[in-house]
């Protein structure tokens, strides 16, 4: 091994010799040889870097050092150019990495002083002699190579054990001597200057050097002397006061905080101050024995005036100034880089552990840093801060731990007391700061479960129990908080579905994806402030557990029994606390993420009582806020005050043009709706806690939830749908419809009790309608009860338009559900081709023989033969003869077929509803027509046609109704009848309906031109939207006439009128849907009279002239649709 090492050193020597010898020859620098020296120095540096993995021997390092030292001796520092000096320092840096272990102390000292002088620019005077940043960086790197710590794995081969300890002890003894301390002081001063440099590499290495020198080489009394300067400079560097962009670089902040941390710990730490007598420590009883004795400070043996002697007065003054400096670093909590935040957390941890006695006034500040950083958005920062917090609370001595715990409990109480002030001042950042502190303290309380009880962390849980428990804690901050905590519904609610989709599009399955809408804090600008408050209350409930139920009950009682503006806010607080107690967030995945959880009997009993109490709110008649008196607490200004002001009007020193207005407060209606929404959240949480055991309470809960769904307010409606979906999920039902179907009697009972004269709710009919809609087609099993309830109420309240309209809406929903469940009964109409001629050969034959003489009578006697039909002959002979054909095969009359229960129920609804076709309200008339339309596909002819025949005059009168939507509903009914019972409607359409349709089409052609929704352009037809009444009426008329001409013989005159009347719907400017149905109509017409259709369309498009030229319509472009019809 030795031989191979010597061989490598010899090879390296051969590489270095051609560089060192010329360099020695040109050691005297002149302007002529400076480029050559630079080239040689560059090659030497590159060679050393390439061989940096090999340990240089002492002799080889001395060999390289000799020409370098010669250059430094033969030239003054002022004469050496920056570039040459930079290369020299770089070479010395590489040499010191290997030479540090056995370099002579004198050489080490000279190199240290050389680098320090260059770093501080002490070799020249005047501004023009300052070295460049790159040169000073090289000097700092050389100084760092001389001073940085090594470990035992780095010594050269063959070195004795303990070489590192001996070497570092030698250097420390030398640097801490009275002769070298001024050099250290000057070096620290130079580094403080370069640490503020804008040259980033120089600033970074200066901070590293400061840390090494202060921590390893400087005596602690010198560190105490430079404490003010170091703290002041590092504070400016960390805060980036010289940075134009705002925040300082994260690595620079971390380096500055590390220097400050070590400086404070060394100069003003508990251990050194106790040793010097500046502070006393009382850990055991024996320490009290020396209480009356004066401390014995360590005597100064050096006599140097620049070394500080730690005394109580010095400590008091330094601690005060240091607290101010630390307080100035608080903005670093919001630094955007994780490196800086981790360094701040480590600094707080170190100072809490080492300065608990010397810096007692800074303990709350340092703890607040760790609390804030524990809520950082960077996971690594949050984990580091939280781990540091646990470490100082569990790993510190008993006396230190108790002080920290008392400080932590004081912080929690102060946070709850100062929170209302921050909310009232709309300080969002302060709100998030306070809420984050409380949340982390609650996490600490939960983390004490795995820590031994003798540690004493249970006092955190005890403090939370006091804040939320019956000891009077909640009364101290609860009233103040509620006086400023006001919510308002957001202007826009973002949710996957809306109540309009549920009620108009008929898709109740989407209710399962609804989440509870969020609310906005009135006194907060950002959304994050409201979220932080919610997280704080959840954390309080989670940490306190069942001890929090007192606070929940306090908030609930205030919210349910108070009519002030604080009622809704009280319920919001109760909901958030209960979320924490149960561990169930009211989100879409709240129950999925929760899993199976067992709760205490006390909590379940509390929830049962709370659910009943909340559900009773819907059994009390709501008070009109405009007439009912309300309790307005002091500070609530729901109306402007009238004031009398005397004197000169005050001049506003602002640039506002308008007068300032007082802040608006949420209206009473908004607060009432929010109150109901929060009550629904309480019901949902009760279901989440009780789960399957909640089914017994559904008799109280179903009606309030459904009543909220039909609310005209979007926020309340979404809350009701979210609550229903949450309850269904919590009680293990596949969907809300399954839940309502299983407890349909509960829901129907709730509606029935609110439709009697003793207690009446106008919205009860809407609740019943939405109940039928949500259950869907499964309602068929319970339809009889619903229909019976509706007709009972119709008999009782038939004179009240609102009630009748609601009940008819319910019946319509029932029929739609039956229509979706039952198979359609369609009348199969055979095409009547008896009047259609497909072959003209018989005609030609008749023309040929029309004048031929008649054949003579046949007088041949064929014997006895019957003179009548065989069937009649059988009847005359008393049944003797040929058997009657079809007696056994005769089908049963459809009228005699037994109806199913559903068809019988539908027949009952139809027969009892047709009387309302003449009701005064057009809405009710339209609903009856829609009911008949939905019942037509379900009922057989034997059940449907008698009622239709009876109501036929009323149906015809509805075509002359003043309201267009009633006429449209009538046309849809006629369309359904023509489609499903065409044989019954065949002649009625041509005799009764078509003349009215013809008149309606002419009337609509005139009125569409005056409508704002009509299509614009030459020859435009109809409206742009497919949801207007006129469009629906057009569609129904076209489909009705299509069904009427299909398979029914049509007179030529009426058929020609139909062909001409619907030509405009083939115009390319008409709606696409109307064009499609018009093509189908003309295709059906072509089956009966193809020539007439061809003639009319060709003449309309201008392709025929002559006698049919009058049919030409220039305003209609129907060529495209003609081509489609011809291609068919």
From TrEMBL:
Residues 810-1094 form the TTI1 C-terminal TPR domain. Signal peptide: none annotated. Residues 857-894 are annotated as: Disordered. It comes from the Eukaryota. Residues 13-376 form the TTI1 N-terminal TPR domain. It holds the Pfam family TPR_TTI1_C. One of its GO terms (cellular component) is cytoplasm. Residues 869-878 have a biased composition (Basic and acidic residues). This is TEL2-interacting protein 1. It comes from Pisolithus tinctorius Marx 270.
């Amino acid at each position: 091994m030795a031989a191979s090492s010597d061989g490598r050193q010899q090879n390296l020597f051969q590489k270095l010799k051609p560089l060192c010898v010329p360099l020695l020859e040109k050691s005297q620098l002149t302007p002529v040889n400076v480029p050559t020296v630079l080239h040689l120095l560059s090659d030497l540096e590159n060679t050393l870097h390439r061989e940096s993995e090999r340990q240089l021997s002492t002799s080889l390092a001395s060999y390289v050092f000799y020409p370098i030292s010669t250059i430094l001796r033969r030239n003054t520092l002022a004469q050496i150019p920056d570039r040459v000096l930079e290369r020299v320092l770089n070479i010395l840096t590489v040499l010191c990495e290997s030479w540090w272990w056995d370099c002579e102390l004198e050489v080490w000292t000279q190199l240290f002083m050389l680098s320090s002088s260059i770093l501080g620019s002490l070799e020249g005077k005047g501004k023009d002699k300052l070295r460049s940043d790159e040169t000073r960086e090289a000097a700092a790197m050389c100084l760092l190579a001389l001073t940085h710590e090594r470990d035992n794995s780095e010594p050269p081969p063959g070195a004795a054990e303990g070489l590192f300890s001996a070497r570092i002890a030698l250097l420390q003894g030398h640097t801490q001597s009275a002769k070298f301390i001024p050099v250290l002081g000057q070096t620290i001063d130079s580094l403080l200057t370069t640490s503020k440099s804008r040259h980033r590499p120089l600033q970074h290495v200066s901070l590293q050097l400061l840390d090494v020198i202060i921590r390893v080489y400087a005596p602690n009394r010198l560190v105490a002397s430079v404490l003010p300067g170091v703290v002041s400079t590092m504070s400016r560097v960390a805060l980036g006061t010289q940075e134009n962009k705002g925040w300082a670089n994260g690595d620079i902040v971390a380096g500055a905080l590390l220097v400050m941390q070590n400086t404070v710990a060394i100069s003003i730490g508990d251990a050194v101050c106790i040793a010097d007598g500046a502070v006393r420590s009382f850990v055991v009883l024996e320490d009290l024995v020396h209480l009356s004795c004066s401390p014995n400070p360590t005597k100064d043996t050096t006599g140097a005036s620049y070394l500080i002697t730690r005394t109580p007065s010095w400590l008091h003054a330094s601690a005060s100034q240091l607290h101010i400096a630390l307080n100035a670093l608080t903005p670093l909590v919001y630094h955007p880089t994780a490196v800086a935040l981790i360094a701040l957390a480590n600094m707080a941890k170190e100072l809490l552990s080492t300065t608990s006695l010397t810096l007692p006034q800074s303990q709350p500040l340092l703890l607040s840093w760790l609390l804030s950083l524990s809520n950082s958005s960077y996971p690594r920062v949050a984990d580091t801060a939280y781990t540091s917090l646990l470490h100082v609370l569990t790993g510190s001595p008993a006396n230190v731990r108790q002080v920290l715990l008392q400080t932590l409990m004081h912080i929690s109480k102060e946070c709850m007391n100062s929170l209302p002030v921050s909310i009232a001042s709309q300080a969002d950042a302060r709100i998030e700061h306070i809420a984050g502190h409380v949340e982390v303290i609650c996490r600490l309380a939960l983390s004490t479960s795995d820590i031994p009880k003798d540690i004493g962390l249970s006092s955190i849980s005890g403090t939370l129990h006091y804040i939320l428990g019956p000891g009077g804690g909640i009364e101290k901050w609860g009233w103040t908080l509620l006086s400023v905590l006001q919510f308002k519904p957001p202007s826009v609610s973002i949710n996957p579905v809306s109540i309009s989709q549920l009620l108009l599009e008929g898709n109740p399955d989407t209710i399962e994806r609804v989440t509870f809408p969020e609310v906005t804090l009135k006194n907060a600008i950002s959304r994050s402030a409201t979220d932080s408050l919610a997280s704080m209350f959840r954390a309080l409930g989670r940490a306190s557990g069942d001890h929090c139920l007192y606070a929940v009950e306090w908030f609930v009682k205030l919210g349910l029994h108070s009519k002030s503006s604080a009622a809704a806010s009280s319920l919001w607080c109760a909901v958030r606390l209960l979320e924490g107690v149960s561990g169930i967030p009211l989100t879409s995945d709240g129950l999925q993420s929760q899993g199976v959880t067992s709760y205490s009997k006390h909590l379940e009993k509390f929830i049962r009582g709370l659910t009943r109490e909340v559900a009773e709110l819907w059994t009390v008649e709501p008070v009109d806020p405009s007439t009912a008196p309300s309790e307005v607490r002091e500070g609530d200004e729901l109306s402007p005050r009238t004031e009398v002001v005397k004197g000169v009007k005050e001049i506003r020193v602002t640039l506002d043009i308008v007068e300032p207005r007082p802040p608006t407060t949420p209206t009473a209606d908004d607060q009432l709706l929010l109150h109901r929404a929060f009550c629904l959240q309480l019901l949902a949480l009760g279901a989440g806690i009780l789960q399957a055991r909640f089914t017994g309470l559904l008799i109280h809960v179903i009606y309030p939830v459904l009543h909220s769904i039909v609310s005209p307010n979007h926020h309340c409606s979404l809350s009701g749908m979210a609550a229903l979906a949450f309850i269904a999920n919590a009680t293990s039902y596949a969907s809300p419809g399954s839940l309502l179907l299983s407890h349909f009697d509960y829901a129907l009972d709730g509606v029935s009790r609110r439709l009697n004269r003793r207690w009446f709710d106008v919205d009860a009919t809407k609740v019943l309608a939405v109940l039928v809609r949500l259950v869907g087609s499964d309602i068929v099993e319970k339809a009889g009860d619903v229909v019976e309830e509706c007709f009972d109420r119709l008999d009782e309240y038939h004179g009240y338009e609102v009630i009748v309209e609601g009940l008819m809406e319910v019946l319509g929903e029932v029929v739609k559900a039956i229509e979706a469940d039952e198979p359609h009964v369609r009348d199969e109409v055979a095409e009547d081709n008896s009047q259609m001629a497909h072959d003209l050969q018989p005609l030609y034959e008749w023309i040929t023989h029309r004048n031929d003489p008649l054949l003579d009578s046949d007088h041949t006697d064929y014997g006895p033969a019957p003179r009548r039909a065989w069937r009649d002959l059988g009847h005359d002979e008393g049944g003797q003869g040929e058997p009657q054909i079809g007696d056994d095969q005769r089908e049963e009359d459809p009228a005699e077929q037994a109806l199913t229960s559903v068809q019988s129920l539908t027949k009952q609804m139809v027969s009892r509803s047709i009387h309302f076709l003449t009701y005064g309200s057009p809405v009710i008339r339209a609903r009856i027509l829609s009911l008949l339309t939905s019942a037509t596909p379900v009922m057989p002819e034997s059940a449907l046609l008698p009622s239709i025949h009876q109501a036929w005059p009323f149906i015809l009168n509805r075509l002359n109704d003043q309201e267009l939507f009633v006429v449209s509903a009538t046309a849809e009914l006629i369309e359904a009848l023509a489609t499903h019972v065409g044989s019954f409607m065949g002649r009625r359409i041509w005799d009764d309906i078509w003349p009215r349709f013809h008149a309606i089409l002419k009337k609509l052609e005139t009125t569409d031109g005056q409508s704002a929704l009509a299509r614009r352009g030459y020859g435009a037809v109809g409206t742009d939207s497919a949801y207007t009444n006129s469009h629906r009426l057009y569609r129904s008329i076209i489909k009705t006439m299509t069904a009427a001409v299909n398979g029914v013989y049509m007179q030529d005159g009426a058929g020609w009128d139909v062909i001409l009347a619907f030509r405009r719907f083939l115009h390319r400017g008409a709606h696409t849907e109307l064009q499609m149905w018009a093509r189908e109509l003309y295709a059906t017409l072509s089956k009966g009279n193809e020539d007439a259709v061809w003639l009319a369309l060709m003449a309309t498009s201008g392709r025929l002239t002559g006698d049919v030229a009058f049919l030409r319509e220039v305003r209609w472009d129907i060529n495209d649709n003609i081509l489609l019809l011809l291609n068919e």
